[in-house]
Amino acid sequence: MRKYICTLCDWVYDPAVGDPDGGIAPGTAFEDIPDDWSCPVCGATKDDFEVHKG
After folding, report:
1. How far apart are the C-alpha atoms of 1 and 7, rounded to whole Å?
2. Count of CB atoms situated within 10 Å of the CB of 32
3. Any alpha helices (H) in the chain, and if so which ranges?
4. For a 10 Å CB count at each end of the chain, is N or C smaller?
């Protein structure tokens, strides 16, 4: 599964880790995260993320 990076604060969503504090379980693909989820660091929306190239 691909990682995604927030274009506003550079936080990386890693599907292997998920976002437990945000209710996203480890193993959840970015595409499967609910549309109303937001970056846990800066509050950006899913639209502010892009595929992480690293």
Report:
1. 19
2. 11
3. none
4. C
**In terms of pTM, does the model score above 0.70?**
yes
CA separation for the pair 16, 29 (Å, rounded): 9
Distance, in Å, from the CA atom of 11 to the CA atom of 38, rounded to the nearest integer, reads 11
Annotated binding site for Fe cation: 6, 9, 39, 42
Tell me the backbone φ, ψ of residue 16, rounded to 5 degrees.
-65, -25
Annotated binding residues: 6, 9, 39, 42
Tell me the residue ranges of DSSP E strands in the chain: 4-6, 12-13, 49-51
Please say if the pLDDT value at position 48 is more than 90.
yes
The rounded distance, in Å, linking the Cα atoms of 12 and 39 is 9
